Amino acid sequence: MIRMDSVTKRYPDGTVAVDRLSLEIPDRSITVLVGPSGCGKTTTLRMINRMVEPSEGTILLDDVDIQKQPVNTLRRSMGYVIQNAGLFQHRTIVDNIATVPRLLGWSKAKARARAAELMERVGLDASLAKRYPYQLSGGQQQRVGVARALAADPPVLLMDEPFSAVDPVVRKGLQEELLWIQEELGKTIVFVTHDIDEAIKLGTMVAVLRTGGRLAQFAPPAELLSDPADAFVEDFLGTDRGIRRLSFFASGELELKTAPIVAVDSTAEQIAVRGTADVPYLLVTDLEGKPLGWSEPGDLTAGEVDPARLLPYGRPFEYGRESLRAALDGAVLSPTGWAVGVDGTGRVVGVVSQQTIGEAIRRAHADGRTDAKVAG
Ligand code: ADP
Fold first, then answer.
1. Span from the CA of 17 to the centroid of ligand 1 (angstroms)
2. Helices 138-150 and 168-185: crossing angle, nearest 10°?
Protein backbone atom coordinates (compact mmCIF):
# COMPACT_ATOMS: atom_id res chain seq x y z
CA MET A 1 0.00 0.00 0.00
CA ILE A 2 1.08 3.57 -0.66
CA ARG A 3 0.21 5.89 2.21
CA MET A 4 0.49 9.66 2.01
CA ASP A 5 0.46 11.34 5.39
CA SER A 6 -0.32 15.04 5.43
CA VAL A 7 1.91 15.72 2.43
CA THR A 8 2.50 19.32 1.38
CA LYS A 9 4.45 20.60 -1.62
CA ARG A 10 5.46 24.21 -1.71
CA TYR A 11 7.46 25.19 -4.79
CA PRO A 12 10.36 27.62 -4.36
CA ASP A 13 8.23 30.50 -5.70
CA GLY A 14 5.78 29.96 -2.86
CA THR A 15 3.07 28.12 -4.83
CA VAL A 16 1.38 25.55 -2.63
CA ALA A 17 0.69 22.79 -5.17
CA VAL A 18 -0.40 20.16 -2.64
CA ASP A 19 -1.77 20.98 0.78
CA ARG A 20 -1.69 18.44 3.62
CA LEU A 21 -2.85 15.57 1.48
CA SER A 22 -3.53 12.26 3.19
CA LEU A 23 -4.44 9.25 1.08
CA GLU A 24 -4.31 5.48 1.40
CA ILE A 25 -3.81 3.98 -2.04
CA PRO A 26 -4.85 0.33 -1.95
CA ASP A 27 -2.79 -2.43 -3.59
CA ARG A 28 -3.79 -4.15 -6.81
CA SER A 29 -6.40 -1.60 -7.83
CA ILE A 30 -6.67 1.65 -9.77
CA THR A 31 -6.67 4.85 -7.75
CA VAL A 32 -7.47 7.92 -9.83
CA LEU A 33 -6.44 11.47 -8.96
CA VAL A 34 -8.85 13.83 -10.68
CA GLY A 35 -9.52 17.55 -10.53
CA PRO A 36 -9.28 20.74 -12.54
CA SER A 37 -6.03 21.84 -14.15
CA GLY A 38 -3.47 23.08 -11.64
CA CYS A 39 -4.96 21.31 -8.60
CA GLY A 40 -1.75 19.39 -7.87
CA LYS A 41 -2.34 16.00 -9.51
CA THR A 42 0.97 15.74 -11.34
CA THR A 43 2.86 17.05 -8.34
CA THR A 44 1.22 14.39 -6.16
CA LEU A 45 2.06 11.62 -8.63
CA ARG A 46 5.65 12.75 -8.95
CA MET A 47 6.13 12.82 -5.22
CA ILE A 48 5.36 9.09 -5.19
CA ASN A 49 8.44 8.29 -7.31
CA ARG A 50 10.43 11.20 -5.86
CA MET A 51 10.69 13.19 -9.07
CA VAL A 52 9.38 15.91 -6.75
CA GLU A 53 10.30 15.94 -3.06
CA PRO A 54 7.57 16.89 -0.55
CA SER A 55 8.08 19.98 1.62
CA GLU A 56 6.29 18.33 4.55
CA GLY A 57 4.70 15.03 5.39
CA THR A 58 5.65 11.44 4.60
CA ILE A 59 4.91 8.88 1.91
CA LEU A 60 5.11 5.23 2.86
CA LEU A 61 5.39 2.34 0.42
CA ASP A 62 4.53 -0.91 2.18
CA ASP A 63 5.14 0.83 5.51
CA VAL A 64 8.61 2.06 4.55
CA ASP A 65 9.26 5.80 4.18
CA ILE A 66 10.21 6.33 0.54
CA GLN A 67 12.78 8.92 1.65
CA LYS A 68 14.70 6.04 3.22
CA GLN A 69 14.95 4.10 -0.04
CA PRO A 70 17.57 4.70 -2.72
CA VAL A 71 15.81 6.64 -5.44
CA ASN A 72 16.83 4.19 -8.19
CA THR A 73 15.44 1.19 -6.33
CA LEU A 74 12.22 3.09 -5.71
CA ARG A 75 11.82 4.08 -9.36
CA ARG A 76 12.50 0.57 -10.56
CA SER A 77 9.51 -0.59 -8.55
CA MET A 78 7.32 1.95 -10.32
CA GLY A 79 6.52 2.09 -14.03
CA TYR A 80 5.77 5.60 -15.27
CA VAL A 81 3.57 6.49 -18.24
CA ILE A 82 2.99 10.05 -19.46
CA GLN A 83 0.93 11.83 -22.09
CA ASN A 84 2.33 11.43 -25.62
CA ALA A 85 4.13 8.33 -24.33
CA GLY A 86 7.53 10.04 -23.98
CA LEU A 87 9.23 7.46 -26.19
CA PHE A 88 12.84 7.59 -27.30
CA GLN A 89 12.48 8.75 -30.90
CA HIS A 90 15.78 7.28 -32.11
CA ARG A 91 15.04 3.80 -30.81
CA THR A 92 12.84 1.13 -32.36
CA ILE A 93 9.63 0.09 -30.62
CA VAL A 94 11.12 -3.16 -29.35
CA ASP A 95 14.17 -1.33 -27.96
CA ASN A 96 11.98 1.32 -26.35
CA ILE A 97 10.09 -1.38 -24.49
CA ALA A 98 13.29 -3.23 -23.58
CA THR A 99 14.90 -0.10 -22.08
CA VAL A 100 14.48 -0.87 -18.39
CA PRO A 101 15.28 -4.60 -18.61
CA ARG A 102 18.49 -3.65 -20.46
CA LEU A 103 19.35 -1.13 -17.73
CA LEU A 104 18.81 -3.92 -15.23
CA GLY A 105 21.43 -5.99 -17.07
CA TRP A 106 19.20 -8.48 -18.90
CA SER A 107 20.71 -9.93 -22.06
CA LYS A 108 19.57 -8.38 -25.33
CA ALA A 109 17.78 -11.60 -26.34
CA LYS A 110 15.90 -11.91 -23.04
CA ALA A 111 14.93 -8.22 -23.03
CA ARG A 112 13.64 -8.43 -26.59
CA ALA A 113 11.69 -11.60 -25.85
CA ARG A 114 10.07 -9.80 -22.93
CA ALA A 115 9.32 -6.81 -25.17
CA ALA A 116 7.67 -9.08 -27.76
CA GLU A 117 5.51 -10.66 -25.06
CA LEU A 118 4.41 -7.22 -23.83
CA MET A 119 3.62 -5.98 -27.32
CA GLU A 120 1.15 -8.80 -27.63
CA ARG A 121 -0.31 -8.07 -24.21
CA VAL A 122 -1.01 -4.40 -25.02
CA GLY A 123 -2.42 -5.23 -28.43
CA LEU A 124 0.47 -4.22 -30.71
CA ASP A 125 1.14 -6.26 -33.81
CA ALA A 126 4.58 -7.91 -33.86
CA SER A 127 5.23 -6.34 -37.26
CA LEU A 128 5.61 -2.94 -35.54
CA ALA A 129 8.63 -4.04 -33.48
CA LYS A 130 11.24 -2.66 -35.86
CA ARG A 131 9.50 0.65 -36.50
CA TYR A 132 10.35 3.98 -34.90
CA PRO A 133 7.85 5.92 -32.75
CA TYR A 134 7.07 8.49 -35.47
CA GLN A 135 5.84 5.64 -37.67
CA LEU A 136 3.08 4.77 -35.19
CA SER A 137 -0.32 6.37 -34.50
CA GLY A 138 -0.88 8.23 -31.23
CA GLY A 139 -2.84 5.31 -29.76
CA GLN A 140 -0.13 2.80 -30.74
CA GLN A 141 2.55 5.02 -29.17
CA GLN A 142 0.55 5.11 -25.95
CA ARG A 143 0.43 1.32 -25.96
CA VAL A 144 4.21 1.25 -26.34
CA GLY A 145 4.41 3.61 -23.35
CA VAL A 146 2.33 1.20 -21.26
CA ALA A 147 4.38 -1.81 -22.42
CA ARG A 148 7.64 -0.01 -21.59
CA ALA A 149 6.38 0.82 -18.09
CA LEU A 150 5.43 -2.82 -17.52
CA ALA A 151 8.68 -4.27 -18.90
CA ALA A 152 10.47 -4.93 -15.61
CA ASP A 153 7.20 -6.06 -14.01
CA PRO A 154 7.06 -3.32 -11.36
CA PRO A 155 4.33 -3.68 -8.71
CA VAL A 156 3.30 -0.03 -9.11
CA LEU A 157 2.32 1.88 -12.24
CA LEU A 158 2.11 5.69 -12.20
CA MET A 159 0.17 7.12 -15.13
CA ASP A 160 -0.06 10.86 -15.83
CA GLU A 161 -2.86 11.72 -18.28
CA PRO A 162 -1.70 8.82 -20.47
CA PHE A 163 -4.72 8.84 -22.80
CA SER A 164 -5.53 12.56 -22.96
CA ALA A 165 -3.97 13.24 -26.34
CA VAL A 166 -5.71 10.52 -28.36
CA ASP A 167 -9.12 10.68 -30.03
CA PRO A 168 -12.19 9.48 -28.11
CA VAL A 169 -12.58 6.16 -29.91
CA VAL A 170 -8.96 5.11 -29.47
CA ARG A 171 -9.10 6.39 -25.92
CA LYS A 172 -12.04 4.16 -25.08
CA GLY A 173 -10.09 1.17 -26.41
CA LEU A 174 -7.02 2.08 -24.35
CA GLN A 175 -9.15 2.45 -21.21
CA GLU A 176 -10.72 -0.95 -21.73
CA GLU A 177 -7.32 -2.51 -22.27
CA LEU A 178 -5.99 -0.91 -19.10
CA LEU A 179 -8.87 -2.40 -17.10
CA TRP A 180 -8.14 -5.75 -18.67
CA ILE A 181 -4.39 -5.51 -17.97
CA GLN A 182 -5.19 -4.50 -14.40
CA GLU A 183 -7.44 -7.51 -13.95
CA GLU A 184 -4.82 -9.82 -15.37
CA LEU A 185 -1.68 -8.41 -13.75
CA GLY A 186 -3.07 -6.91 -10.53
CA LYS A 187 -0.77 -3.87 -10.50
CA THR A 188 -1.20 -1.00 -8.07
CA ILE A 189 -2.03 1.84 -10.45
CA VAL A 190 -2.15 5.55 -9.64
CA PHE A 191 -3.77 7.33 -12.57
CA VAL A 192 -3.99 11.10 -13.10
CA THR A 193 -6.68 12.64 -15.28
CA HIS A 194 -8.71 15.85 -15.49
CA ASP A 195 -11.59 13.91 -17.06
CA ILE A 196 -14.20 12.84 -14.50
CA ASP A 197 -15.75 10.27 -16.87
CA GLU A 198 -12.38 8.59 -17.28
CA ALA A 199 -11.95 8.64 -13.48
CA ILE A 200 -15.34 7.00 -12.97
CA LYS A 201 -14.71 4.41 -15.62
CA LEU A 202 -11.24 3.37 -14.45
CA GLY A 203 -11.11 4.06 -10.74
CA THR A 204 -11.56 1.54 -7.98
CA MET A 205 -11.08 4.59 -5.77
CA VAL A 206 -11.22 8.20 -6.94
CA ALA A 207 -9.56 11.14 -5.19
CA VAL A 208 -11.11 14.46 -6.25
CA LEU A 209 -8.70 17.35 -5.68
CA ARG A 210 -9.59 21.01 -5.65
CA THR A 211 -7.38 23.93 -6.61
CA GLY A 212 -4.72 24.47 -4.00
CA GLY A 213 -4.06 20.74 -3.81
CA ARG A 214 -6.63 19.92 -1.18
CA LEU A 215 -8.58 16.68 -1.12
CA ALA A 216 -12.28 17.24 -1.72
CA GLN A 217 -13.41 13.58 -1.60
CA PHE A 218 -11.89 10.11 -1.70
CA ALA A 219 -14.42 7.40 -2.53
CA PRO A 220 -15.37 4.62 -4.94
CA PRO A 221 -16.92 6.09 -8.11
CA ALA A 222 -20.47 4.90 -7.39
CA GLU A 223 -20.33 6.66 -4.03
CA LEU A 224 -19.05 9.88 -5.61
CA LEU A 225 -22.05 9.82 -7.91
CA SER A 226 -24.57 9.06 -5.17
CA ASP A 227 -23.10 11.16 -2.37
CA PRO A 228 -20.85 14.00 -3.55
CA ALA A 229 -19.20 15.53 -0.48
CA ASP A 230 -19.97 19.14 -1.36
CA ALA A 231 -21.02 21.57 -4.08
CA PHE A 232 -17.54 21.56 -5.65
CA VAL A 233 -17.56 17.78 -6.18
CA GLU A 234 -21.17 17.87 -7.35
CA ASP A 235 -20.37 20.57 -9.86
CA PHE A 236 -17.25 18.74 -11.03
CA LEU A 237 -19.24 15.53 -11.58
CA GLY A 238 -21.53 17.40 -13.96
CA THR A 239 -25.05 16.49 -15.02
CA ASP A 240 -26.71 13.07 -15.34
CA ARG A 241 -25.28 11.82 -12.06
CA GLY A 242 -28.25 9.55 -11.47
CA ILE A 243 -28.18 8.02 -14.93
CA ARG A 244 -24.41 7.56 -14.82
CA ARG A 245 -24.64 5.80 -11.49
CA LEU A 246 -26.78 3.12 -13.14
CA SER A 247 -23.56 1.89 -14.80
CA PHE A 248 -22.71 0.31 -11.47
CA PHE A 249 -25.81 -1.89 -11.30
CA ALA A 250 -25.72 -5.13 -13.28
CA SER A 251 -28.64 -6.06 -15.52
CA GLY A 252 -28.52 -9.73 -14.50
CA GLU A 253 -31.33 -9.43 -11.97
CA LEU A 254 -33.82 -7.97 -14.42
CA GLU A 255 -36.68 -10.35 -15.03
CA LEU A 256 -36.87 -10.81 -18.77
CA LYS A 257 -39.96 -11.96 -20.65
CA THR A 258 -39.72 -14.43 -23.51
CA ALA A 259 -43.43 -14.65 -24.33
CA PRO A 260 -43.50 -11.60 -26.65
CA ILE A 261 -40.82 -12.99 -28.98
CA VAL A 262 -41.63 -14.49 -32.37
CA ALA A 263 -39.33 -15.73 -35.12
CA VAL A 264 -39.79 -14.30 -38.58
CA ASP A 265 -40.95 -17.70 -39.88
CA SER A 266 -43.63 -18.14 -37.20
CA THR A 267 -46.97 -19.60 -38.22
CA ALA A 268 -50.25 -17.73 -37.85
CA GLU A 269 -51.11 -19.87 -34.81
CA GLN A 270 -47.79 -19.10 -33.12
CA ILE A 271 -48.32 -15.38 -33.67
CA ALA A 272 -51.86 -15.62 -32.35
CA VAL A 273 -50.69 -17.43 -29.19
CA ARG A 274 -47.91 -14.93 -28.55
CA GLY A 275 -50.24 -12.04 -29.29
CA THR A 276 -52.44 -12.96 -26.37
CA ALA A 277 -49.60 -12.50 -23.91
CA ASP A 278 -50.10 -9.42 -21.72
CA VAL A 279 -47.87 -7.26 -23.92
CA PRO A 280 -48.81 -4.71 -26.52
CA TYR A 281 -45.89 -5.53 -28.84
CA LEU A 282 -44.13 -8.57 -30.25
CA LEU A 283 -40.42 -8.66 -30.99
CA VAL A 284 -39.64 -10.32 -34.31
CA THR A 285 -36.31 -12.14 -34.61
CA ASP A 286 -34.51 -13.56 -37.62
CA LEU A 287 -33.93 -17.30 -38.01
CA GLU A 288 -30.80 -17.09 -35.81
CA GLY A 289 -32.72 -15.43 -33.00
CA LYS A 290 -31.29 -11.94 -33.58
CA PRO A 291 -33.69 -8.99 -33.25
CA LEU A 292 -35.33 -7.45 -36.31
CA GLY A 293 -37.89 -5.10 -34.76
CA TRP A 294 -41.16 -4.71 -32.90
CA SER A 295 -44.68 -5.02 -34.21
CA GLU A 296 -48.18 -4.71 -32.80
CA PRO A 297 -49.63 -8.24 -32.78
CA GLY A 298 -52.48 -7.28 -35.12
CA ASP A 299 -50.01 -5.97 -37.72
CA LEU A 300 -48.18 -9.29 -38.09
CA THR A 301 -49.14 -11.72 -40.80
CA ALA A 302 -47.43 -15.10 -41.03
CA GLY A 303 -45.17 -15.36 -44.06
CA GLU A 304 -45.45 -11.66 -44.85
CA VAL A 305 -43.21 -9.97 -42.32
CA ASP A 306 -41.44 -7.00 -43.84
CA PRO A 307 -38.46 -6.12 -41.57
CA ALA A 308 -38.41 -2.60 -43.02
CA ARG A 309 -41.86 -1.92 -41.58
CA LEU A 310 -41.09 -3.06 -38.03
CA LEU A 311 -40.55 -0.55 -35.20
CA PRO A 312 -36.90 -0.04 -34.16
CA TYR A 313 -35.65 -2.03 -31.17
CA GLY A 314 -33.12 0.57 -29.99
CA ARG A 315 -29.78 -0.75 -28.87
CA PRO A 316 -29.92 -4.23 -27.34
CA PHE A 317 -28.09 -4.71 -24.03
CA GLU A 318 -26.00 -7.72 -23.18
CA TYR A 319 -27.95 -9.35 -20.38
CA GLY A 320 -25.89 -9.81 -17.19
CA ARG A 321 -22.73 -8.24 -18.62
CA GLU A 322 -23.99 -4.74 -19.29
CA SER A 323 -25.54 -2.45 -16.70
CA LEU A 324 -28.98 -1.12 -15.91
CA ARG A 325 -27.87 2.03 -17.69
CA ALA A 326 -27.51 0.11 -20.96
CA ALA A 327 -30.89 -1.57 -20.41
CA LEU A 328 -32.61 1.74 -19.71
CA ASP A 329 -30.94 3.30 -22.73
CA GLY A 330 -32.25 0.48 -24.91
CA ALA A 331 -35.79 0.96 -23.59
CA VAL A 332 -35.68 4.74 -24.07
CA LEU A 333 -34.39 4.34 -27.62
CA SER A 334 -37.28 2.16 -28.75
CA PRO A 335 -40.70 3.75 -29.41
CA THR A 336 -42.23 0.73 -27.69
CA GLY A 337 -40.50 1.49 -24.37
CA TRP A 338 -39.17 -2.06 -24.22
CA ALA A 339 -35.50 -3.06 -24.18
CA VAL A 340 -34.08 -6.17 -25.84
CA GLY A 341 -31.66 -8.37 -23.86
CA VAL A 342 -29.17 -10.38 -25.91
CA ASP A 343 -26.38 -12.86 -25.20
CA GLY A 344 -22.74 -12.41 -26.21
CA THR A 345 -23.53 -13.52 -29.77
CA GLY A 346 -26.38 -11.02 -30.24
CA ARG A 347 -29.21 -13.58 -29.92
CA VAL A 348 -32.27 -12.41 -28.03
CA VAL A 349 -32.61 -13.88 -24.53
CA GLY A 350 -35.64 -11.82 -23.49
CA VAL A 351 -37.29 -8.41 -23.42
CA VAL A 352 -38.03 -6.04 -20.56
CA SER A 353 -40.23 -2.97 -20.17
CA GLN A 354 -39.16 0.47 -19.00
CA GLN A 355 -41.44 -0.04 -16.02
CA THR A 356 -39.68 -3.25 -14.94
CA ILE A 357 -36.29 -1.55 -15.37
CA GLY A 358 -37.58 1.34 -13.24
CA GLU A 359 -38.58 -1.07 -10.49
CA ALA A 360 -35.14 -2.73 -10.62
CA ILE A 361 -33.50 0.69 -10.31
CA ARG A 362 -35.58 1.53 -7.26
CA ARG A 363 -34.72 -1.84 -5.68
CA ALA A 364 -31.00 -1.37 -6.40
CA HIS A 365 -31.04 2.10 -4.82
CA ALA A 366 -32.93 0.81 -1.80
CA ASP A 367 -30.36 -1.99 -1.33
CA GLY A 368 -27.59 0.59 -1.59
CA ARG A 369 -25.63 -2.10 -3.40
CA THR A 370 -23.44 -1.56 -6.42
CA ASP A 371 -21.81 -4.16 -8.58
CA ALA A 372 -18.21 -2.87 -8.58
CA LYS A 373 -17.45 -2.71 -12.29
CA VAL A 374 -20.02 -3.49 -14.91
CA ALA A 375 -19.36 -3.03 -18.60
CA GLY A 376 -21.33 -0.23 -20.25
P1 ADP B 1 -2.18 19.47 -12.23
O2 ADP B 1 -1.37 18.26 -12.54
O3 ADP B 1 -3.36 19.19 -11.38
O4 ADP B 1 -2.54 20.28 -13.43
P5 ADP B 1 0.31 20.47 -11.10
O6 ADP B 1 0.69 19.50 -10.04
O7 ADP B 1 1.01 20.36 -12.39
O8 ADP B 1 -1.27 20.43 -11.31
O9 ADP B 1 0.49 21.94 -10.54
C10 ADP B 1 -0.08 22.39 -9.33
C11 ADP B 1 0.29 23.85 -9.10
O12 ADP B 1 1.69 23.95 -8.90
C13 ADP B 1 -0.04 24.75 -10.27
O14 ADP B 1 -0.44 25.98 -9.75
C15 ADP B 1 1.28 24.88 -10.99
O16 ADP B 1 1.38 26.09 -11.68
C17 ADP B 1 2.26 24.81 -9.85
N18 ADP B 1 3.56 24.25 -10.24
C19 ADP B 1 3.81 23.07 -10.83
N20 ADP B 1 5.12 22.87 -11.02
C21 ADP B 1 5.74 23.97 -10.51
C22 ADP B 1 7.11 24.39 -10.40
N23 ADP B 1 8.11 23.61 -10.81
N24 ADP B 1 7.34 25.61 -9.85
C25 ADP B 1 6.35 26.39 -9.42
N26 ADP B 1 5.04 26.06 -9.48
C27 ADP B 1 4.74 24.87 -10.02
1. 6
2. 20
Per-residue pLDDT of the chain (376 residues; tens, 9 = 90+): 999 999 999 999 999 999 999 999 999 999 999 999 999 999 999 999 999 999 999 999 999 999 999 999 999 899 999 887 788 999 999 999 999 888 888 999 999 999 999 999 888 999 999 999 999 988 899 999 999 999 988 999 999 999 988 888 889 988 999 999 899 899 999 999 999 999 999 999 999 999 889 999 999 999 999 899 999 999 999 888 888 899 999 999 899 999 899 999 888 888 888 877 677 899 999 999 999 999 988 888 888 888 888 999 989 999 999 999 999 999 999 999 999 999 999 999 999 999 999 999 998 887 766 655 555 5
CA 121 to ligand 1 center in whole angstroms: 34
Residue nearest to atom 27 of ligand 1 (CA): 11
The verdict on the CB of residue 14 being under 6 Å from ligand 1 is no
The residue among 323, 318, 317 whose CA lies nearest residue 372 is 323
CA dist 282 and 337 (Å) reads 12
| Sign, CA torsion 204/205/210/214 | negative
Domains of the chain: 2-247 (3.40.50.300), 261-367 (3.10.580.10)
Nearest CA-CA partner of 292 in 100, 228, 300, 24: 300
Nearest CA to ligand 1 atom 18: 17
State whether the beta carbon of 42 lies less than 6 angstroms from ligand 1. yes
